[in-house]
Every structure is written in structure tokens, then in C-alpha cells.
Amino acid sequence: MGLAINRTMNNRSKIISVAAKICGLKEPAAIHAAVLGGASYVGLVFYPPSPRAVTPVLARALATLVPPAVKKVGLFVDPDDDFLVTVLAQVPLDLIQLHGRESPERVAWIKALTKLPVLKAIKVAKGADMDMAKAYDGVANMLLFDAKAPEDMADALPGGNALVFDWELLKGRHWRRPWMLSGGLDAGNVAQAVTISGARAVDISSGVESARGVKDPAAIKAFLDAVMAL
């Protein structure tokens, strides 16, 4: 792990213009690829219907592989208080990601309950969806803009569906809180996505997989290499 920590510190000795989050990690090899590649965040999914879901026991083991410079993010979908408390009693998370239909009031309560910053996902298909962010800007510590799945999409998840929305919808918009761009990103399109949207942070899951829920360390490296080149 010393190599991973040293490599991560070397990556952070440079000015990173765009931060990257690799989400849905379930295996040590994927964690190592994210850390070695210079990811600023790693995401652990606590949503049992997802093929990327981890148990608190597995998440705790994976968290030990992450150096302090990399933030550990727990993704939840409309969690109840008991579930949050149970997970946090076992897993040392740095940031809570809410990817469901949580209201601004619920976001504020979860911040108070967990004593952790919250990243709130806003699902986007059209310009009107961007207005949803206004209610959370200032309540959540960070925002994340992800593609909204069509209602008729089979087996759609709250996120990680490999869908892209129109990045022009973010162009020129300003928020009080920092934000991330997600949805259908990969090594081939991340530069264009950042150029159009103005994102300073990006989040990826399905774009670095060899099969649904199966992370590919080589794809993680390729994506992070593309981000580091920005």
C-alpha cells in the first residue's frame, strides 16, 4: 500500500484541474487502480438492488486500502436513518452521496445525523430539470448532475445507466456549491464533456466496466489518464 500512497501523493503534487471520482468499486484491484491513477474520490454503493452494491463488511475492508488523501464516498438511495447509522458504524466514510428522491429537508437532516458533508445527485433530461438544483444549492455541500433514465428503460438504476444528457445545459450556469458531472462518461468523451459543461469534477461508474458491475482496472487507468491530461 506504500506504493499506492506514494503514487497518490505524487499525483497530487501537480495542480489537478479536474477531479475524478470512480464509483461502484467492489474489488481491491479496482480500488488500487483508482488510487494509483490519481482519483480524488472513490465511491462505495450501499443500494442492494445495484450490481455494484457492497455490504458494510466488504466496504470496511476496501476502505482500509484508501489513503487519507482520497475521499471515501458512500452512495445511498433514499436511506432511512437506521441504515445510515448501521453503515457508518462500520465504514469510515468521508462524504455521503444521495442519489434518490431525497428532499432538501431530508438532505439537511442527513447532514445533521451523520455529521458528514453531503453530495446530492440531480437527474437531468431537459433544461427544466436543472431548476431542481436551486433547492439543494446551499443545503447540500456538493451537487452532482447525472442523466435521468427514461421511464420506459428496463432495469434502470437511480444512476450508473451509461446514459448521457446534453452537457450544454450546464454551460454558463453557476452554483454556490461545487459540482460534479456524471452520466455516460468514458475515456473517449470526458475531455469534450468538461469543455462543454465547464465541470471541474467528474464521476464515472459504468464507463470503466467490462460488464455491468464489474470494474476494469485498465479502463479506470485510461479514464484517469484522460482526466489528468485536461
Summary of the model, kept short:
The protein is an alpha/beta fold and 230 residues long.
Please tally the helical runs, counting DSSP H or I stretches of 4 or more residues: 8
What is the average of the pLDDT values? 90
The structural domain count equals: 1
Roughly how many Å is the radius of gyration? Answer: 16 Å
Secondary structural class? alpha/beta
Shape: globular
What would you note in describing this structure?
There is one protein chain. The protein has 230 residues and is an alpha/beta fold. It has a single domain (2-228), classed as Aldolase class I (TIM Barrel, Alpha-Beta Barrel). The protein contains 8 helices and 10 strands. It has an 8-stranded parallel sheet with strand order 7-6-5-4-3-2-1-8. Helix 4 (81-90) links the parallel strand 3 and strand 4. Helix 2 (28-37) packs parallel to helix 8 (217-228). The model is unreliable at 1-13 (pLDDT under 50).
State the main characteristics.
two-stranded antiparallel ribbon, 10 strands, 230 residues, disordered N terminus, alpha/beta, TIM Barrel, 8 helices
Topology readout:
Blueprint lengths: L1 H11 L6 E4 L5 H10 L3 E5 L10 H8 L7 E6 L4 H10 L4 E4 L5 H11 L3 E7 L7 H5 L5 E6 L31 E3 L8 H8 L3 E4 L4 E3 L2 E2 L1 H12 L2
